[in-house]
Each structure stands twice: as C-alpha cells, then as structure tokens.
Automatic annotation (TrEMBL):
The chain crosses the membrane at residues 20-39, 259-283, 304-337, 357-373, 394-417, 423-445, 713-732, 753-780, 800-820. GO terms for molecular function: ATP binding. One of its GO terms (cellular component) is plasma membrane. It is found in: Cell membrane. It comes from the Bacteria. Its main location: membrane. Keywords: Cell membrane, Membrane, Transmembrane, Transmembrane helix. This is ABC3 transporter permease C-terminal domain-containing protein. Residues 263-379, 713-822 form the ABC3 transporter permease C-terminal domain. It is a multi-pass membrane protein. The keyword Transcription does not apply. The keyword DNA repair does not apply.
C-alpha cells in the first residue's frame, strides 16, 4: 500500500488535466441531490418542530357531521388547559346573483379562543375580535385570491349561506393552514357564533368539527391518545397531535422530495457515463506508465490500488465541490424558498442530506469507474506497449460480482433514504431501462452506419459521417447515452403533462358534469330537481343521498393496521345507500328491494382488491358517532375518471334509516349554460354549495403543473450533465478529428466539405438520441395517463419535435466547437506527429 500511495502521489503532481468532465459530472449530480435534500429536510423539520402551530394546538379531536356532545366536550375540557372549537366546511361566497359574483370558499368558523398557538396575520392588522363585526353584521377575513377575484376590500359586504358579512381584512398567513390540506377553494374565516343558527350547520350538512387543545406540560401524547381513543371508541372521533400535525403535507413532501432525489440520481447516472469515459481515456493516456510499472514487476493489485487512490482523491474533490455548490444555491435562494412556502421554514446546512448526496456520488463514481480500471490492471506490458486494444475486453468475475453488489447497494440505499420501495424500484428501473434502450440504440446506429456506407458512394460528406459513427473510436455511445437520458426524462414529463391536459380538454365537455352540488337538504331535493327540469339546457341531473363515514374495522380488526395505509382507510369517505346498483356488479349479489335485515354493503371492486377485501368480510364504518358493521355482499365497477358520482361504499337503505344526511347532485350542461344554472340555483337555494368541475380540475391541474415544473428542473440538471459529457466526448475525440481532417485534406477535400461531414455526424447522433427519448417519453406518458390515470392518451407531437431539435442542436454545438481547431491544423504537422 505504501508503494501504491507513492505512485499515486507522484502521478497526482501532474494536476487534474483531463478530469474536468468527471469532476463536473460529479459536482452537478451531487449538487442536485444535495439541494433537493436540503429543502426537503428543512420542510420536514418545520413540520416536526412547529407541529403545535400547524395543528392549532398540542392535540386535536375531530368529528365529522357533528359537534361534540356536552359530556364529550366536558371530557375534552377536563383533560386540557385550553380548548378552541373550529368548524370547517365549504360554501359559496357571493356579492350578487351573477355567477361572476360568486366563488367557492373553504370556510373556517372559529370561536373566541382561536388561535391557541401561533399568530393569525391579517392585512390590515386587526385582531380576531373583528369577526364580531359592526351594526349587527358579523365580520369575515378573506384569502387575498378570493378578495381579488370578487373585487372586495375591507368594509365591503358579502353573503355566505344567505347571510350578510362585512369584510374586515385579508388573510396574510394562517398558522394552521398547512395541516388542513388542500381545499377546493380559497380560505375564509368567520366567527362560529355567526353561523351556528344557519342552514350551513343543519343536520346532515357536510362539515368537520375540530377541538384543538393545549395540554399540561410533560403530557405523554401516546398515553393521552390511547386514553382518548378508549373513551371515544365508537363515537367517530379522530385524534391528531403535534407529533404529526400535517400527515398529508408530510407524505407529499417526502414522496415528491424522494422522487426528485431519484431524478437527481438519473443525472448522476448520466455523469457516470462521463466518469467511465474519463477513466478509460485516462488509462489509455497512461498506458506507457502502466506498461513500465508492469515491466518493473508491479502487480496488478499495486497498480490498481495506485489508480484507485488517485480516482478516490479526484472523486472526493468532485463530491465536495458538488456539496458546496448545492448548499450554496439553496442558502443563496433561501429567502425566495422561505417566502414561497406556506409555513415558516429555516434553511440550514443539514448534514443528513449532504451525507446522502455524498454517498450517492461515491457509489455512482465507484460503479462507473470500476470496469475500465479493472480491465487495465489485467493487461500485460507487451499488450499495453503495442496498443492492440485488447484492454477493452470484459473484466473478470470478481469485477462483475462487485458491480452487482454496488448496484444492489445503490438500490438499497435509495429505498432506505426514501422509505418508498415501490417508488424507488420504479424510478431506478425506469433509469436502467432507459440506459439499456439507449445502449442498444447506440449499437444499432453504429451497425446501421457501417452497413449504410456503401449506399453513400458518390456522397463523400455522408460517407465520411457514417464511417465516423460506425468506426471503432465512435462517439455514438457516449453521445446517445449522455444526451439521451436527459432528453428522455424531459420527454416523459412533457408527454405526461400534455397527455393529462389533452385528456381533460377532450373528455371534460363530453363526460364530466358541469357542477357538483352538495349540502342539499332532504326537503330541498324535490324542488331542486323540479327547478333543473325546467331548464332546457340541462341535459341530465343525478342525485344521491350522501353521508360521510370512517372505515374503522375490517373483520373486527383495526382497518389501517391490518389492511395498510390505503387512501380509502385514511380519513372519512363518502357513503350512500341505494335500493338498486348504479354501477355494474363484478362479483356477488345485490340486496333485495325493501331489505330490512342486518346491514349489507357493496364495495368498489378496484379498491377492494387493493386493500384485500373479500366477499363475506365484515366492514365497520363510523357515521355520526355510530358504528355500523355490514357484510360485504358485492363488488361494483366504479369509474372515478368520468367525473360523475361514484362511491366506494354503498349500504342498504335500512342500515342508514333515520340518519341525518344531505343530498349530492351532479348537473350536466354545456359550458354556455353554466352561468344561468348557477344564477338560478343561487337565487332559490342560497345555502347549497355548487362546485364547478372545471374550476376543481383547474386546481388539480395547477398542482400537477407545479410538480411537472419541479421535475423538469431536476431533469434539466440531468440534461446539463449530459451536455458536459457530450462536450467531454467531443474534446476527447479532437485528436481523431484532426487526423481525419488531415487525411481528407490530403485527399482533396475542402474545409467546407469536412465541416459538413462533422456537422452531419453530430446531427445524426443528436437526432438518434432525440428519437430514443421520444420513444421512452411516449411509453412513459402512455403508462401514466392511460394505466395510472385511466384517461385516453394521445401522443403530443410538439414536445417531441422540440426534444429532437434540442438533441440535434446540442450535439451540433458540441461537435462544431471542437472541430474548429482540427480544421485549422496543417495536414503535414498532424500526419508526421507520432501516434
């Protein structure tokens, strides 16, 4: 080892010339992963440290469809130092009867103790007591988006649920907004006393009541949770506490952050191509040195150790530079990041994400440097002196085994850090598949170029370009791998984004309803139907009774513990009852009409399969504090993609007889009739809430677009890394281009013809990379839009053409820049130079 260290130290005295591609690749890949990890860590730390503020207290008791009974509220009060009651629901805010003067809002009705923790920031900075209003008219605080949409300013009057309110301030920041998740409309805040006697809280209306509490110091939250759940067993209470104040936001941040880290790994994989090429070129330059060491008796192990030490030193430089760049970018943009997030976040240098990025960099560098390094150490001195090219054969079994081990470690480490095995395997599998396709494409293109040379007789420019692509020192593999993977990720993002938008534009007018209408009281449903029946533009109206319930047990066992964290088992779900099935049965039998026996249930087939539910299983759902245990007798084909009414769980009518409930309706009408429908409903039924489907989808589309932009940014780093590798490949081939240009000049070729040949070579390789990216992007888009989202996928040609154009332009720029010096060289000087 001392001899290897001595050799490595002396070799490193020559500097890092020729290693800038490797260093830049490592730096960019590590920087991308480090920056994403630092932001993710800061958000997760804020969610954890500010749990009480985000939740609105140390703990929260939540009830659906009802408020706590007096004895329940007394128990909550007895076990807390302070209690605040908050009721959350959706409604319509109006300044007139015109649809343009109405907007959907997520209302938070609060008592005088709100907020228990944190501070509500308002503009102008009034106190929450301003909700009492003036002159008998209660006050309301509005989200700036809502105020701007309706053109409201402090002092203006609005209507909520048929009651007048006066706007007192704009909401700057709600301390507990992050824990509430994403609503369908902007927020508004009113006093609880102002809406208690209104139809907004009538029996069966859809609302959630939250009792936020502060607890005595040193309270054991786990023990308190167990005590509360035991006391409220069967009452439909859901417990939350400051340990996980915003589980939805936490899951979203974890999954999106982990996915972006995996996209960053794609950048490192592209960088690995550059690392491999750099190491191979370095070994080729060092062939005389290696041969001399072998001739002097150095073993393969000694030589390998010496070169490993050099690579480790250079890799450490690249990784440290990447950590510095990533941390510098995040800290430099910390102000922008903190202002853009909906919760207070402190960006700091967290060693965890930095260590994760460094580990990824080290593993990828070792993986891609291993093969050229192992092949070098096995060659004999005579082989290296004679430059026979034998060093390009496959390495031995120890190296192949170590390669498999490194790949397994990368997959395991990625899954460990993300905590999401399925996402990790899918993402890394996609990267591996793309690399495999790109490698095969490079091989096919080289073979096709060699086979097509005879067809180019009489076209010297084309023949020279094809000969260069198909030759033994072709850049095709490096170019297509490095550029193609970055373009593939961008193509996938573009096709998914275009596919979802296209599916919405095509299918919404034909399939989806114009409005979802909720909070229709039982005595309003017939007048509601009669009103719509008199509107000639309304093509169809569907209505069903609706309640909300929480699936708590399956076969007597806790549902989430025995059947996983499926979305159906998280939180409350819509529940209905029916005499006859609305959807096609896929298994089992429906109950008879006028059935009056033990409760029976029908479940959505797809969701039942996902959670492992079988016919005959008992399912317990808590509705309005009452546990109803029903036997599953059938499964239904529920298609949520149509935008129409669809319930996971349907019970027989007798099971819910007498339970307070409201009705849900969907209204089908052409876009030009939507305004009149809204106007007539607002005049007749001011308490109901009409959710315009186009607006709801627009909010979801906006969220998907934000994710697409973040993914595109991460993919941009991958593309930038690929461009670095591309430039490195062009620079490494400069000597071959000089020799080629000299030969062609000697044979009478003009500079223009030689330059055209170089340009055509680059354009063909760039086009090949772009075409493979289009293939991969199209497959990814089809898989996400068709298989995952259940929508019709149509290929988007514009993003595809831009991808091909980008590939051609990138390779042209890289190729032509490094063709200028070979073209300027004099043939005699090049041809007389020693090889």
């Amino acid at each position: 080892m001392s001899l290897s260290l001595t050799i490595a130290r002396r070799e490193l005295r020559g500097g890092i010339r020729g290693f800038w591609v490797m260093l830049l690749c490592l730096m960019l890949g590590v920087a991308a992963i480090a920056s994403v990890g630092l932001v993710r860590s800061a958000i997760e730390r804020a969610l954890s440290d500010q749990g009480a503020v985000l939740l609105g207290g140390d703990a929260q008791y939540e009830f659906t469809y009802r408020r706590a009974k007096p004895d329940e509220l007394q128990w909550i009060t007895d076990h807390a130092t302070a209690v605040s009651e908050v009721i959350d629901f959706r409604s319509m805010l109006a300044t007139g009867t015109d649809p343009a003067d109405r907007a959907l809002t997520q209302v938070k009705a609060v008592d005088g103790a709100y907020p228990l923790t944190g501070k509500l920031q308002l503009d102008p900075p009034v106190t929450p007591h301003a909700l009492k209003g003036e002159g008998g008219v209660p006050g309301i605080f509005l989200d700036p988006i809502l105020a701007d949409r309706l053109g409201l300013k402090p002092g203006d009057k609005v209507q909520l649920g048929g009651q007048d309110f006066v706007m007192k301030a704009r909401i700057v920041r709600e301390p507990d907004s992050t824990g509430a998740g994403m609503g369908l409309g902007p927020h508004s805040i009113v006093a609880l006393s102002a809406i208690e006697a209104t139809p907004l809280l009538a029996p069966g209306s859809l609302f959630e009541t939250e009792y936020r509490v502060t607890l005595p110091p040193q309270t054991d939250l786990a023990a308190m949770k167990a005590q509360a759940e035991a006391h409220f067993e069967g009452a439909g209470m859901r417990w939350s506490d400051r340990r996980r104040a915003a589980p939805g936001a936490e899951r979203f941040v974890q999954r999106l952050g982990s996915f972006l880290v995996l996209v960053g790994l794609a950048g490192l994989a592209v960088g690995g191509v550059g690392i491999s090429a750099t190491v191979a070129a370095w070994i080729e330059r060092k062939a005389p040195t290696i041969a001399t060491l072998r001739a002097l008796g150095a073993t393969g192990r000694t030589i390998r150790a010496a070169f490993l030490i050099q690579l480790a030193s250079l890799g450490a430089i690249g990784i440290l530079a990447g950590l510095g760049l990533g941390a510098g970018l995040v800290l430099g943009a910390s102000g922008l990041i903190e202002r853009a997030l909906p919760l207070p976040v402190a960006i700091t240098l967290d060693p965890g994400p930095l260590g994760e990025a460094a580990l990824y960099g080290a593993l990828v560098a070792a993986l891609f440097a291993l093969w050229p390094l192992s092949r070098m150490s096995r060659m004999r001195a005579a082989t290296l002196y004679r430059d026979t090219g034998a060093g390009r054969r496959l390495p031995g079994w120890p190296t192949l085994t170590l390669t498999v081990v490194l790949l397994a470690v990368i997959v395991g480490v990625s899954a460990w850090f993300s905590g999401l095995w399925t996402l990790t395997l899918a993402s890394l599998g996609g990267i591996a598949f793309a690399l495999l396709i790109l490698t095969l494409a490079a091989w096919v293109i080289r073979r096709a170029a060699r086979a097509g040379q005879h067809l180019a007789r009489g076209r010297p420019v084309l023949r020279a370009a094809l000969a260069a692509i198909g030759g033994p020192r072709s850049e095709a593999r490096s170019v297509i791998l490095s550029l193609g993977l970055g373009l593939s990720v961008l193509a996938a993002v573009g096709q998914v984004d275009s596919g979802l938008r296209g599916a919405i534009d095509r299918d919404l007018p034909k399939v989806a309803p114009a409005y979802f209408v909720i909070d229709i009281q039982p005595d309003q449903i017939q007048p509601f139907k009669d009103l719509l029946a008199g509107m000639p533009d309304v093509t169809k109206v569907e209505s069903v009774p609706m309640l909300r319930g929480v699936i708590t047990k399956i076969n007597g066992e806790d549902a989430r513990k025995t059947h996983g964290e499926h979305w159906v088992l998280r939180g409350d779900r819509g529940v209905t009852y029916a005499d006859t099935p609305r959807e096609k049965l896929t298994a089992g039998e429906w109950w008879p009409k006028d059935y009056n026996g033990p409760p029976l249930a029908s479940f959505s087939a797809k969701e039942a399969q996902e959670i492992g539910l079988k016919l005959g299983d008992d399912i317990t759902v808590n509705i309005l504090g009452r546990d109803i245990t029903a036997k599953v007798t059938s499964f239904r084909d529920v298609d949520f993609a149509t935008g129409g009414i669809g319930f996971v769980l349907t019970l027989d009518p007798a099971a819910l007889r007498g339970a307070p409930h409201t009705w849900l309706a969907t209204i089908y009408a052409p876009p030009q009739a939507e305004a009149q429908v809204m106007r007539d409903l607002a005049e007749r039924f001011p308490n109901i809430t009409a959710i315009r489907v186009r607006d709801a989808i627009a909010r979801v589309t906006e969220a998907l677009s934000a994710i697409a932009r973040a993914t595109s940014l991460a993919a941009g780093v991958t593309l930038l890394t690929g461009f670095v590798v591309l430039i490195g490949a062009a620079a490494a081939g400069e000597r071959e281009r000089a020799w080629e240009a000299a030969m062609l000049k000697t044979l009478g070729a003009t500079r223009g013809a030689i330059l055209a040949s170089f340009a055509l070579r680059s354009a063909l390789m760039g086009a090949a990379a772009g075409l493979v990216a289009i293939l991969f992007g199209g497959l990814a888009g089809w898989a996400v839009v068709d298989l995952v989202m259940g929508a019709e996928f149509r290929f988007a040609p514009v993003p595809a053409l831009l991808i091909v154009a980008g590939g051609v332009i990138a390779t042209l720029l890289a190729g032509l820049v490094f063709a200028l010096r070979p073209l300027a060289a004099r043939p005699a000087g090049v041809l007389r130079a020693p090889e």
